[in-house]
C-alpha cells in the first residue's frame, strides 16, 4: 500500500503545479499579454500544463512580458504522467517532438530518448497502443497471481488508471467466461492455449465484447479502434516479415488468395465493425463482422511464419515496455520496490508465453537502462548499463565462438533473473533476430555516445560532464564489443572521438578569443588556449578514456601539439625581429611544448594501439631553438653593429678625464662596461633558450668591441717611435771646434737647464748647435702635446678597467646561463628543451649547473672604489695586468679567466664553495674573451710604453738629447731631469693602483736609462768625456736608482739593477784609458771583418779593404742602421703594422736597452782592467794590450753580444772621448770627421731627412 500512498501524494503535487501555472498565465493576460493555445482548446488542459517546462516559461515571460506567448513552444515531454489519455511517451522507434530550450541553457535535444534503428521494430503502433497491449497481456497472464501493490505499480508504470484497470479485468473475465462456455458446449476451446499472449487475444475481445459492456458507447468505440489497429498493424507486420505463400488450388481451380487480398478482406471486415454512432449499431451485424475478422485473421496467420504469435519486433517492444516498469515513477533513476520479484514474474510467467529469449531480455534490459540514463542523467544508471552491456558483450563472444546452439526466437526463456535483472542464461536458443537486436542495441548506444563523444567538451555538459565520461566510454566500448567489434576497433573509435572533440573545442576557443592583427599576439594567445585545454585534458576530460585507451591523454596532447604546430611553424619561419610580443609568443611556445611533448614521448614506446602509436610517433618537436638560431644571430649581429658605432662615438666625444677620485678611468670606459652588461641583460631577458653558438657570437661581439675601443686609443696615439728623435751623426773630438762652440753658447739665455730660443746665435754669429729637432718643430707636435701624461694615465686606467670587466662579464654570462638551464630543466622533465637548443628526454644534467658564486672577497672593484679609499689603495688592476711578469698571478690563457689567483676574479677567487659546474662555465665563457684580454694587456703595455717615451723623449727631449753633460759633465747634471720624472710619478701616475704605478715606473726607468746611454754614446758634437767623468756619471746613476727604489716603496732593487746593467757596464768602458779602448776597438773591428758581419762597420771595413777608408756619416750610408737601432722591436712592430700582442711582447719589461744588449751583465767591466790616462797610447801591439783586447772580446761574446755590436759601442765611446789620441785614431783608421761647422750643417740636414723618413 506504500506505493498507493506515494501515487496519491504525487497527484496532489501535480494538481498544485497545474494551479500555479494557471495563475501565472492569468497574470500574464492581466498585464496585457496573450496566451496562444493549441487549435480547438479554449483553456489549458491538464496534459498541456503537465508538459510545460517551468524554467523555460519563466525565462520567456521575463523577455516577453506583454507579448504573445505560444504555450506549445514551452512544452517538454513528460517522462511520466498519471493520465493515460494524455501521456504519450516515446519508445524505441517514435520520432517524438522537440521542446523549447530551458532557461539553464540545457539543450532539450540531449534529453530526447535514443532510437534503435531496426526495421522489424517498426510495428506501426504508437507507444500508448503498445502500453495498452502490454498491460492487456500482463493482466491476462499475471493479473490473478500478482499481489495488489505490484499490480498497482505495473499499472502506474504503463499509464493505466484504476478505472481502466478494472475495465480490463472485467472484459478479460467476460472473454474467459465465454470461452469456457464454448468449451463446455463443444468439448474444446476454439483458441490455443497461448491465446492470452498472442494475436488471438484481440480477436477474441473483438468477437466477444459489445457496447453494452461499457458505460458509454464512446468508450466502446475507443476500445474497439485500439484493438482493430493493433490487430491490423500486427498482422501487417507479420505479413511483411514472414509471409509464406501456399500454392494450393481451391475449388474451381483458383489458387489461394495473396497476402494483399487477405489483408484487403481483413480491412473490409474491420470497416464493417467500425460503427461510430450507437444508433447505427446492430449486434447481429457486428457479430457477423467480428466473425469475419477472425476468419480472415486465421487465413492470414496460416501463411505467415509467426502464426498467432506476435511478430518479433512487437515482442521486443512489449519486452521493453514491460521492463521499463522496473523504474520508480517518482524517482526515475531508482528501481521500484519489489523489482526483483517483478523481473522474476516476467521471466517465469510472461516471457515464455511471449517468446522473449534471454538475449532479447538482456538487450532490452540494457537498452532500458541506457534510455533511462539519457532521460534522467543519473550517473548510477551508466554503471548499471555498463554492467549489462558487458554481459551482452560476453554473450556475443560466446555466440561467435559457437557455444550456443540454434533455435527460434520463440524459445522459452530459461534461467533465472539476477540481482540486476539480467538473465543468467547463456542464450541456448538465440536466433539471428536476437543477435541483430544485440548488435542494434550496441549500435544505437555507440551512435548516441559517439555523436556526443565526437564533441564531448560541448555535448557532455548536460550529461554529467567529465565525471560521467569514464562510464560513458565504458558503455560505448562494451556496446561495441557486444556487436562484435574488436578491442582495436574500439580504440579506433575512441581515438577518432578524442581527435574530433579536441579539434572542435580548440577551434571554438580560438574563435571566441578573436583574431589579433599581430601574428605574434595571435600565436601567444593560441599557446595560452592550448595550454589551458591541455591541462583540462590531463586533469579531467581525456583521463576519462584511459580505462579503454590508456594513451588517451597523450593522444589528446598530440592532437593539440599538431594543431598548435600547424600554426606556429609557419610563423616561426617568418620571424625577422625579436620584439616583446614575439618573445612572449616564443616563450609561450617553448613553455607549451614540453607540457605536450613530454607525455607524448613517454607514452609512445609502450603504446599498444597501432593508430594511437602512429599518432604519438608522428608528433615531432617544433625545435624552436633551432628555428630561432638565425633570428637570434641577426639580433646579436644588430647589437654588435651598434657596438661599433657606439665605440666610435664615445671615443670621438671622450675628453680623457678621470671619472672621480679613486676612479682614474674615463667615462667612455664606464659607459662601455655599462653597454656590454646591458646588452647581456637584454640577451638573456629575451627569455629564450640561447644556443651556445649565439652566446659565443655575442661574446665575440663584446671581444670585438673591446678591441675596437683599444684600436681607437692606439690609433690616436700612433707609434711611440715617432716621439724618439733620430741619432746624430758620429764626429770625432777637435779641441778648437769644441772650445769655440762652448764659448759661443756660454752667454745664451736658458742654459744650462733650458734651450735658448730658436735662432739664438753668439756675438760672432755661431748658432746654438742642436743635435735633434725641437718638439715644437715636429710634424705632429700639436697632437702629441694634447696627449699629456694625465691623458695617457686615464687611457691606461680605462684599458685596465675594461680588463677587470672581462671576468665579471664571463661570470654574468655563466650565472645567467645557469639560471636559463635551471629554468628550462624545470619546465619539463622528459622532452624538455635545454638552454643550448637541444631537445632532451630526461638526458644528462647540464655541466654548468651549480650554486651561485660567492661575492668578490674584497667586496669592491679596483676601478670603482666604493669603499672610499684614497687613490692607490688597490694593489693591482685585474690581478696584476701590468707589463711586468713579477706579481702577475696568472695569465688569461692559463686561468681561462682575467686575473691572477690573488685578484679574486678568476676561478680561484670563488673559493671552494663554488661548484665545478660554475667554474667550468666561467672558463668556457671566459675563453671567448681571451683575445680581448690579451689585446687589452697589450694595449696597456703600449700605453705604458707610450707614456714613458712621451715623458723622456718628448717632454724631456732637450734635457736628455741636448743639455745633459753638454760640453762637459759638470755643466749640467741629471738632478733636474730626475725631478721631472718624480713629478710625473707623484702626479698623474699617482692616481693609479700600486702595481700599475710600478709598471709605469719600470717603463720610465727603462727610458731614462736609454736617455742616459744616448747622452753618453750618441750625444752629438757637443758632449765630450774623459775617464774621470765616470765617477760623476756613476753618482747620477745612483741618483736614478734612489729615485725609483724610493726607500723600498718603489721598484725592486733587482729589477732596477737589471735595467741599469748596461749603464754600469758602459761606465766601466768610459773610465778605461784611451789606449786600451783603441786596442779593443781595433781587435773588435778586425773580428767583425773576419766574421763578415753586415752593417755600418762591415760596410766601412769593406770600403777600407777596397782602399777608400771609412765612409763619412754625411754620405748617408749609416742612416738605415741608425733608424733600426733607435726604433727598437716594439716601434718597428707598430710602424710595420704588427699586432698589439706582438708589440706588447716586444715592449716587454726586460729592463734592457739597445746598447746594454751588446755589453750586458757587466761582464766586460768585471773582466777588463780599470785604466786611466796613464795607459799606453798608440797602436802598439804589446802583450798587455793584446791580452786586454782579447779578454774584452771574450767578455763581450760571453755576455751574449756580437763582435759587430761591441765594435760599434767602442767606436761611439772613442768618438765622445775628449782625447787627441782617440781623435787621431778615428781620423787615420776609421775616417771619422771632426766637428766642423760644415759638418754640423750637414748633420742637421740629414737628421731632418731621416725624421721625415
UniProtKB/TrEMBL annotation:
Q: Which residues form the MHD2 domain?
A: 971-1081
Q: PROSITE patterns of this UniProt entry? A: MHD1, MHD2
**A Pfam family of this chain:** TPR_PATROL1
Q: For the MHD1 domain, which residue ranges apply?
A: 583-717
Composition bias, kind Low complexity: at what positions? 415-430
Map out region (Disordered) in residue numbers: 400-434, 822-879, 1158-1183
**UniProt cross-references to InterPro entries, sorted A to Z:** Munc13_1 (IPR014770), Munc13_dom-2 (IPR014772), PATROL1_C (IPR057984), unc-13_homologue (IPR008528)
> In what ranges is there compositional bias, type Gly residues?
403-414, 1160-1183
Matching entries from PANTHER family are given as: PROTEIN UNC-13 HOMOLOG
Its protein name is MHD1 domain-containing protein
The species this protein belongs to is: Tetradesmus obliquus (Green alga)
Amino acid at each position: 500500500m506504500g506505493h498507493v500512498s506515494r501515487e496519491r501524494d504525487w497527484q496532489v503535487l501535480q494538481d498544485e503545479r497545474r494551479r500555479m501555472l494557471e495563475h501565472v498565465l492569468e497574470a500574464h493576460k492581466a498585464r496585457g499579454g496573450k496566451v496562444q493555445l493549441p487549435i480547438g482548446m479554449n483553456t489549458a488542459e491538464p496534459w498541456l500544463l503537465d508538459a510545460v517546462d517551468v524554467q523555460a516559461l519563466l525565462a520567456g515571460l521575463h523577455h516577453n512580458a506583454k507579448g504573445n506567448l505560444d504555450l506549445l513552444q514551452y512544452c517538454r515531454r513528460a517522462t511520466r504522467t498519471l493520465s493515460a489519455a494524455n501521456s504519450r511517451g516515446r519508445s524505441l522507434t517514435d520520432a517524438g517532438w522537440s521542446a523549447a530550450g530551458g532557461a539553464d541553457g540545457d539543450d532539450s535535444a540531449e534529453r530526447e530518448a535514443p532510437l534503435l534503428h531496426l526495421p522489424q521494430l517498426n510495428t506501426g503502433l504508437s507507444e500508448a497502443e503498445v502500453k495498452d497491449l502490454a498491460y492487456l497481456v500482463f493482466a491476462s497472464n499475471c493479473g490473478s497471481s500478482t499481489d495488489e501493490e505490484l499490480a498497482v505499480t505495473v499499472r502506474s508504470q504503463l499509464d493505466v488508471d484504476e478505472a481502466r484497470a478494472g475495465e480490463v479485468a472485467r472484459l478479460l473475465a467476460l472473454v474467459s467466461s465465454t470461452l469456457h462456455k464454448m468449451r463446455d458446449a463443444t468439448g474444446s476451446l476454439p483458441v490455443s492455449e497461448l491465446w492470452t499472449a498472442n494475436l488471438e487475444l484481440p480477436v477474441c475481445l473483438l468477437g466477444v465484447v459489445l457496447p453494452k459492456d461499457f458505460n458509454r458507447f464512446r468508450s466502446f468505440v475507443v476500445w474497439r479502434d485500439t484493438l482493430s489497429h493493433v490487430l491490423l498493424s500486427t498482422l501487417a507486420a507479420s505479413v511483411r516479415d514472414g509471409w509464406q505463400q501456399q500454392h494450393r488450388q481451391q475449388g474451381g481451380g483458383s489458387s489461394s488468395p495473396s497476402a494483399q487480398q487477405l489483408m484487403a478482406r481483413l480491412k473490409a471486415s474491420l470497416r464493417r465493425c467500425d460503427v461510430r454512432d450507437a444508433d447505427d449499431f446492430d449486434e447481429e451485424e457486428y457479430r457477423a463482422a467480428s466473425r469475419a475478422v477472425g476468419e480472415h485473421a486465421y487465413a492470414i496467420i496460416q501463411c505467415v511464419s509467426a502464426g498467432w504469435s506476435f511478430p518479433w519486433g512487437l515482442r521486443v517492444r512489449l519486452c521493453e515496455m514491460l521492463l521499463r516498469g522496473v523504474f520508480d515513477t517518482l524517482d526515475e533513476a531508482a528501481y521500484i520496490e519489489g523489482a526483483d520479484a517483478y523481473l522474476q514474474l516476467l521471466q517465469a510467467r510472461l516471457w515464455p508465453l511471449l517468446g522473449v529469449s534471454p538475449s532479447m531480455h538482456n538487450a532490452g534490459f540494457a537498452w532500458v537502462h541506457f534510455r533511462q540514463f539519457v532521460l534522467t542523467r543519473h550517473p548510477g544508471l551508466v554503471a548499471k548499463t555498463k554492467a549489462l552491456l558487458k554481459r551482452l558483450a560476453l554473450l556475443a563472444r560466446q555466440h561467435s565462438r559457437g557455444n550456443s546452439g540454434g533455435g527460434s526466437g520463440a524459445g522459452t526463456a530459461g534461467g533465472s533473473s539476477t540481482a540486476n535483472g539480467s538473465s543468467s542464461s547463456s542464450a541456448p536458443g538465440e536466433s539471428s533476430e536476437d543477435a541483430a537486436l544485440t548488435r542494434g542495441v550496441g549500435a544505437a548506444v555507440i551512435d548516441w555516445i559517439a555523436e556526443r563523444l565526437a564533441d564531448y567538451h560541448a555535448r557532455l555538459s548536460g550529461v554529467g560532464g567529465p565525471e560521467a565520461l569514464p562510464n560513458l566510454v565504458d558503455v560505448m566500448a562494451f556496446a561495441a564489443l557486444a556487436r562484435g567489434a574488436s578491442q582495436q576497433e574500439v580504440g579506433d573509435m575512441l581515438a577518432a572521438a578524442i581527435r574530433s572533440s579536441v579539434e572542435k573545442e580548440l577551434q571554438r576557443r580560438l574563435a571566441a578569443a578573436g583574431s589579433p592583427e599581430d601574428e605574434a599576439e595571435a600565436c601567444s594567445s593560441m599557446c595560452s588556449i592550448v595550454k589551458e585545454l591541455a591541462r583540462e585534458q590531463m586533469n579531467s576530460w581525456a583521463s576519462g578514456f584511459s580505462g579503454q585507451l590508456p594513451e588517451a591523454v597523450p593522444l589528446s596532447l598530440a592532437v593539440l601539439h599538431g594543431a598548435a604546430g600547424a600554426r606556429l611553424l609557419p610563423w616561426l619561419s617568418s620571424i625577422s625581429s625579436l620584439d616583446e610580443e614575439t618573445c612572449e609568443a616564443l616563450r609561450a611556445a617553448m613553455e607549451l611544448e614540453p607540457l605536450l611533448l613530454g607525455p607524448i614521448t613517454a607514452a609512445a614506446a609502450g603504446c599498444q594501439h597501432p593508430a594511437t602509436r602512429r599518432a604519438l610517433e608522428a608528433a615531432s618537436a617544433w625545435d624552436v631553438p633551432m628555428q630561432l638560431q638565425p633570428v637570434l644571430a641577426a639580433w646579436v649581429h644588430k647589437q654588435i653593429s651598434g657596438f661599433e658605432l657606439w665605440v666610435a662615438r664615445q671615443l670621438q666625444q671622450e675628453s680623457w678625464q678621470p671619472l672621480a677620485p679613486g676612479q682614474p678611468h674615463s667615462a667612455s670606459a664606464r659607459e662601455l662596461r655599462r653597454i656590454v652588461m646591458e646588452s647581456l641583460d637584454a640577451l638573456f631577458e629575451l627569455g629564450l633558450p640561447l644556443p651556445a653558438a649565439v652566446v659565443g657570437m655575442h661574446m665575440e661581439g663584446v671581444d670585438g668591441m673591446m678591441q675596437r675601443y683599444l684600436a681607437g686609443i692606439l690609433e690616436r696615439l700612433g707609434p711611440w717611435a715617432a716621439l724618439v728623435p733620430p741619432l746624430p751623426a758620429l764626429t770625432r773630438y777637435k779641441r778648437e771646434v769644441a772650445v769655440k762652440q762652448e764659448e759661443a753658447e756660454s752667454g745664451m739665455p736658458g742654459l744650462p737647464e733650458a734651450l735658448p730660443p730658436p735662432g739664438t746665435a753668439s756675438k760672432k754669429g755661431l748658432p746654438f748647435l742642436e743635435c735633434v729637432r725641437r718638439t715644437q718643430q715636429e710634424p705632429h707636435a700639436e697632437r702629441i702635446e694634447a696627449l699629456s701624461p694625465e691623458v695617457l694615465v686615464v687611457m691606461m686606467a680605462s684599458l685596465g678597467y675594461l680588463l677587470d670587466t672581462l671576468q665579471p662579464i664571463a661570470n654574468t654570462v655563466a650565472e645567467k646561463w645557469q639560471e636559463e638551464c635551471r629554468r628550462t630543466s624545470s619546465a619539463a622533465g622528459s622532452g624538455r628543451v635545454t638552454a643550448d637548443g637541444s631537445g632532451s628526454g630526461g638526458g644528462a644534467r647540464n655541466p654548468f649547473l651549480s650554486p651561485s658564486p660567492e661575492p668578490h672577497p674584497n667586496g669592491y672593484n679596483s676601478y670603482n672604489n666604493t669603499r672610499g679609499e684614497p687613490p692607490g689603495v688597490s694593489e693591482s688592476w685585474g690581478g696584476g695586468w701590468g707589463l711586468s711578469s713579477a706579481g702577475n698571478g696568472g695569465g688569461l690563457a692559463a686561468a681561462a679567466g682575467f686575473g691572477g689567483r690573488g685578484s679574486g676574479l678568476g676561478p680561484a677567487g670563488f673559493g671552494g664553495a663554488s661548484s665545478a659546474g660554475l667554474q667550468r662555465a666561467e672558463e668556457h665563457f671566459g675563453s671567448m674573451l681571451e683575445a680581448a684580454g690579451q689585446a687589452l694587456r697589450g694595449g696597456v703595455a703600449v700605453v705604458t710604453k707610450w707614456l714613458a717615451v712621451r715623458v723622456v723623449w718628448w717632454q724631456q727631449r732637450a734635457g736628455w738629447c741636448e743639455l745633459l753633460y753638454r760640453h762637459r759633465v759638470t755643466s749640467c747634471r741629471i738632478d733636474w731631469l730626475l725631478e721631472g720624472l718624480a713629478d710625473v710619478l707623484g702626479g698623474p701616475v699617482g692616481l693609479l693602483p700600486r702595481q700599475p704605478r710600478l709598471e709605469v715606473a719600470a717603463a720610465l726607468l727603462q727610458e731614462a736609462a736609454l736617455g742616459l746611454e744616448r747622452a753618453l754614446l750618441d750625444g752629438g758634437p757637443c758632449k765630450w768625456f774623459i775617464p774621470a767623468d765616470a765617477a760623476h756619471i756613476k753618482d747620477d746613476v745612483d741618483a736614478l736608482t734612489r729615485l725609483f727604489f724610493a726607500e723600498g716603496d718603489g721598484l725592486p732593487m733587482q729589477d732596477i739593477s737589471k735595467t741599469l746593467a748596461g749603464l754600469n757596464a758602459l761606465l766601466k768602458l768610459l773610465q778605461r784609458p784611451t789606449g786600451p779602448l783603441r786596442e779593443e776597438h781595433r781587435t773588435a773591428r778586425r773580428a767583425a771583418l773576419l766574421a763578415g758581419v753586415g752593417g755600418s762597420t762591415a760596410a766601412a771595413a769593406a770600403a777600407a779593404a777596397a782602399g777608400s777608408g771609412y765612409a763619412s756619416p754625411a754620405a748617408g750610408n749609416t742612416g738605415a742602421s741608425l733608424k733600426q737601432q733607435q726604433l727598437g722591436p716594439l716601434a718597428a712592430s707598430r710602424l710595420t703594422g704588427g699586432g698589439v700582442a706582438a708589440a706588447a711582447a716586444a715592449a716587454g719589461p726586460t729592463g734592457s736597452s739597445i746598447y746594454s744588449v751588446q755589453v750586458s751583465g757587466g761582464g766586460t767591466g768585471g773582466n777588463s782592467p780599470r785604466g786611466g790616462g796613464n795607459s799606453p797610447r798608440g797602436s802598439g801591439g804589446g802583450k798587455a794590450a793584446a791580452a786586454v783586447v782579447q779578454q774584452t772580446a771574450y767578455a763581450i761574446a760571453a755576455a751574449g753580444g756580437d763582435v759587430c755590436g761591441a765594435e760599434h759601442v767602442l767606436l761611439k765611446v772613442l768618438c765622445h772621448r775628449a782625447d787627441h789620441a782617440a781623435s787621431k785614431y778615428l781620423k787615420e783608421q776609421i775616417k771619422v770627421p771632426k766637428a766642423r761647422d760644415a759638418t754640423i750643417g750637414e748633420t742637421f740636414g740629414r737628421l731632418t731627412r731621416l725624421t721625415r723618413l
